[in-house]
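Dock zinc ion; give full complex structure.
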Amino acid sequence: MTLHTSLELGPVGEDADDLRTFLHGLAGCPEVQHTQQLCCTGPDAGTWFYAEADPGQGISRHRCVACGTTRHLLDSESHWNYPPMYACTACGTSIVELAVGLHAVDPDKGDGPARVRWLALAARCVECGVISGLTDAYVPDLTVGELAAAL
Ligand SMILES: [Zn+2]
Ligand SMILES: [Zn+2]
């Protein structure tokens, strides 16, 4: 299930910290309490990616520029529909830094870690710095740590 939030075209960011600040400041969506920059799961731990995303379906995947490792966002692969590769709306560059913003709530009963309910994925163009939302999605019942490990 997908929450159809219109993610506005963001400001120009200097670095990945600005990307995370953008996610914290998103309006008109669940409050973002946690952010995390995406790193390649390969040995290079790269942070530059090609990204494909469909905000209508709440899906995305990203491919490491350095080593080619591809990761799908959560269960995106199970309803993949081959959206086009993202390109910066300002300069046309396809290489981006990526970060997720997470909305988490306290568990229904008792103590325990907060449960992530929703996430937004945003990209920062490594060429000109323009930040843009890529997609957002409801999250199955995961803790922040579990979700971070799945990215
Ligand atoms: Zn890599
Ligand atoms: Zn750009």
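Observed: Residues 1-7 have pLDDT under 50 and may be disordered.
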